Every structure is written in C-alpha cells, then in structure tokens.
Amino acid sequence: MNSKIEALVANIEKVIVGKQETVLKIVTAMLCGGHVLIEDVPGVGKTQLVSSLARSVAGKFNRIQLTPDVMPSDIVGFSMINQVTRELEYKEGAAMCNFLLADEINRASPKSQSSLLEIMEEHQISIDGVTHMLPVPFMTLATQNPVETYGTYHLPEAQMDRFIMKISMGYPAYEDELRIMSNGENLISAKDLRAVMSTDDIAVLMEEAQKVATAPSIRKYILDIVTATRTSEYIRLGVSPRGSIALLRAVKSYAYVMGRSYVIPDDVKAVMVEVLAHRLMLSPKGKSNFEDNGAALKAVAMTVQSPTTAE
C-alpha cells in the first residue's frame, strides 16, 4: 500500500474501528473522483466516517443536514446584487468545497436532490448563466437511513446512478465495539483528527491511480458481468454503460490502493457489489429469490467465467 494512503487509512481508523475494508473502499472512490452513498441504520458511524476522511485531508469540508425545507440555493449557492457595484455577485452554497457531507439525503425534497445532479456529474455549478468550477478533489458523501420511510423522498434511479459506490457499514464485531466504547469514554472523534494529506497529494494520487494497467481480459470480464445483468431473469433493469465505466475506474483505483500497478480479477470481485448493485432493479422473480440487489448480483456474476490471469 502507498505510504500516503496507509497514513490516511490509519488516521481514519483512530475513529472508525474495525471497518478497514469500508475505509479502503471510501478512499478508492475518492481516488477515482466518485461519490459515495452510505446507507445504514442509525448510530453505526456513517457521519463519523465521512468527517474522519474529510478532516484527514487538508481541504475544505462542508456539511449540510438535508431536510424538506432545504432549498437548492442552500446547496449550490445563489446570486445577489452587490449594493456597491450594482452587479450580480455569487454567494457560495454548501457544495463549494472539497468534501460535501449530505446528511440524510433522502429527507431532502426532489427539487433539492436534483440540484446535486450537476455538481456530482459535471463538478461545476451554473448560476444565472455563469459556470463556477468546483475545486479538485470534489467528493459528495451522502448518508441515508434505510429503516425510516416517514418524511423521506426516495432517490430516483438517475440520482442513484451518480454515486460510484453505495456502501453499508454494518454493526461492528464484539471486540471492535468494546474498543469503540473505550474511544467514546476518551472522547476520540473526527474533530480531534489532524490532516495527514493535502488536496495536492490527493490530485497526484488520483492521476497515478488512473494509470494502473487493465488487461483486455479484465475489461472483458467487467463487460461480461454487466451484460449478464441485462439478460438475467432475476433483473428487470440491468447495469448501464455508465456502470461499466464506473466499475473500470473503481477497480483501477482499488488496485492502486492495494499497492499494485495492475488490476487482477479479485479487484473486480472486491468492489463489484458496491459499484453495481444500486444500479439494478430486480424482477419479481429476483425479489422472491434474493434478499437484496447485492445477493442477486453475486449470483449473476458467478455465471461469468473469471480470467485466470491479468495478462
């Protein structure tokens, strides 16, 4: 593992205990310029994870608590007349940062959710005919609680497709939770972390990650999995070309995070569910046979022949 990435992961793990695989995938998403949706029950550390990543990098971190009364202008900003110059002046919204934590995104109205579409896809904000570029890196990390439905607005498929990964942290193991309880007593939290990396470092790592070699057999393996989702009787809506591109970017970054300059089939298997599962819609038969999208995707992927080498 790259020494800078190792330092970043170790810093985050001062707060987030026993979830190294989750941390590695968050870092993977950051290195391929993607956005992450973290969906899990309350109290497992979703917000702490995002805050720990942002505070470990010396960039600008903004958090917005999304509720039905949040307006699009709160997210993207607005223009107002400067009383001195009598000209329109742009006032920044929460999105003008390196790391945007959109807490409980499914509580925002559809209008506010749609305001995130351009900034997530284009990394820019257009207000009154003027385009404002977002800084590099820019990453949206959204959280949502899957067990509450009252007062929430389901994210449309177009919005879900903008997230390169959808991650679930899950409950900690018994021994890990004992450590978490100890950390709670010592008041160790994300706000106590010091930055171990600059935004310039992240930009360099992002360039290096996309130079990772991907053999034709790996690319075909990715496309075979994607194609299988489009023909399976368990899946009503398969993965789009955006999904296959996202998986290719993610496996290159994951290989880089793991310290390799080339992709192996295990990299595809490691991030496949997080990158592809939320892009699927199960058929009635799929819903009756599988617990969730991830289980269905794994079953479909098992029908695809994995390459034996990365050559």
Classify the beta-strand content into a percent band.
15-25%
Oligomer: single chain
Count of alpha/pi helices? 13
Structural class: alpha/beta
Biggest sheet strand order reads 3-6-9-1-10
Q: In the CATH hierarchy, what is the architecture of the largest domain at level 2?
A: 3-Layer(aba) Sandwich
N-to-C CA distance: 22 Å
Fraction of helical residues: 40-55%
State the shape. globular
**Estimated radius of gyration:** 20 Å
Poorly predicted ranges (pLDDT <50, ≥5 residues)? none
* CATH topology (fold) name of the largest domain: Rossmann fold
SSE topology string: HHEHEEHEEEHEEEHEHEHHEHHEHH
Mean pLDDT, rounded to whole units?
A: 87
Number of strands: 13
Query: Main sheet?
Result: 5 strands, parallel
CATH class of the largest domain: Alpha Beta
Number of domains: 2
Fourth CATH level, the homologous superfamily of the largest domain:
P-loop containing nucleotide triphosphate hydrolases
Pfam families: AAA_3, AAA_lid_2
Domain ATPase AAA-3: 35-165
InterPro entries: ATPase_AAA-3, CbbQ/NirQ/NorQ/GpvN, ChlI/MoxR_AAA_lid, P-loop_NTPase
GO molecular function, one term: ATP hydrolysis activity
Structure description:
The chain is of the alpha/beta class. The protein folds into two domains: 3-202, Rossmann fold (3-Layer(aba) Sandwich), CATH 3.40.50; 212-303, Helicase, Ruva Protein, domain 3, CATH 1.10.8.80. It contains 13 helices and 13 strands. The protein has helices spanning 3-12, 20-31, 46-56, 72-76, 110-122, 157-160, 174-185, 199-209, 216-231, 241-257, 265-276, 284-289, 293-301, and strands at 36-39, 57-58, 61-65, 78-81, 88-91, 99-103, 124-127, 130-133, 139-144, 165-167, 197-198, 235-237, 281-282. The longest helix is centred in the last third of the chain and has 17 residues, at 241-257. It is globular. The two termini are 22 Å apart. This is MoxR-like ATPase. It comes from Ruminococcus albus. Residues 228-288 form the ChlI/MoxR AAA lid domain.
